[in-house]
Amino acid sequence: MQNMENPECMWDARMAAQASAEVSQLAAAIRKQHAGRSYDWSPAANYQLEYDNLRGEIYVGGVYVRLFLKNPKYAVRDPVKFAEALVEKYLQDLTVAAANADGSSAALDRCLLLSAAAVALLQGHG
Predict the structure, then answer these.
(1) What's the CA gap between 88 and 93, in Å, rounded?
(2) Rounded distance between C-alpha atoms, residue 89 and residue 7, angstroms
């Protein structure tokens, strides 16, 4: 198992183990349902696997912002998509921060990171 960590991909043994455990649980649920002669199965409409390692990561336009800021010269695959997503997320978080007038909002912190990423993107890819 090779670990990967760059602005567009994060993967390690812990994430692989978590994915494997999730697939095993889903397979067990399917086998149980099939044993009861029911063959119509699909995950819940809003199902998604959430990796512990990715909690708190800001993922925008296919890029992990923290890792991009660590390596701003990284050539993202789609800088236009990344730039557009940064602006969109920035505006969303700015709206949330404005609604939280005390100024201690996590959204305000995200706005700072997003604007720093936008500046780094323009400097490195502009």
Answers:
(1) 9
(2) 17
Residues in the chain: 126
DSSP labels for the chain?
Answer: ---EEETTEEE-HHHHHHHHHHHHHHHHHHHHHHHTT-------TT-----GGGTT--EETTEEHHHHHHSTT---S-HHHHHHHHHHHHHHHHHHHHHSTTS--HHHHHHHHHHHHHHHHHHHH-
pTM summary value? 0.83
What is the full per-residue pLDDT of the chain (126 aa) written as tens digits? 689 999 999 999 999 999 999 999 988 988 888 888 877 878 889 989 999 999 999 999 999 999 999 999 999 999 999 999 999 999 999 888 888 766 567 888 899 999 999 999 999 876
Which residue reads 């409409």 in tokens?
A: 45
